[in-house]
Amino acid sequence: MPPIPRAGDGSPVRARAAAQRARILAAATRCFVEHGFHAASMAGIAEAAQMSPGLMYRYFPSKSAIVLAIIERQLAESRAKIAELHASTEITSNLRRSFAQWQAEAPDAMNVALFLAMSADARRDPQVARALRDSDRLTRADLADWLGRSNEDGGRAVSKDLAESRALLMQCVIEGLAIRALREPDLDFDRLAPALRQLFDWLLSP
Asked: What is the pTM of this model?
């Protein structure tokens, strides 16, 4: 992506650029969810963001660049959440909060419909496919690293081989819960909680 022209390197300029990018990504997310990737156009995204197409192209030269930025943002959010984990974390409580956010399509949570749309688009766009694979790999590595750390270091003291396979299973379970939240927005999490608690007690045991 070509660099965005700047009036200098001061923080106000960087903050404005970050705010403009966030505005475009929020508008693009709405357009992708409402119309699908292929029906959503750059002109439509610019209109939803309430800015001129010319200004938007200064930040994102193409629709693929916007999709890649959304994937990058979701990866950063996932890694930040993993970095906050520690040995005493109650995973089921965290999942309860995430499940409620997915059901409500909260703006500060992963948009599940968009996650599914990007996964489908990856079959047609090699760049998106590569970005999603890299995102999955990094998230899984962070989970495995946390599982393998000692209890004193805030981990779970799981052996390396087990940590890698359990990290993959955790990804599968969490993504499955997100899809279920989308499919059944009125599903009571309490129906899932006892089984999830047992599952994660096992997944997090040494």
From this structure: 0.82
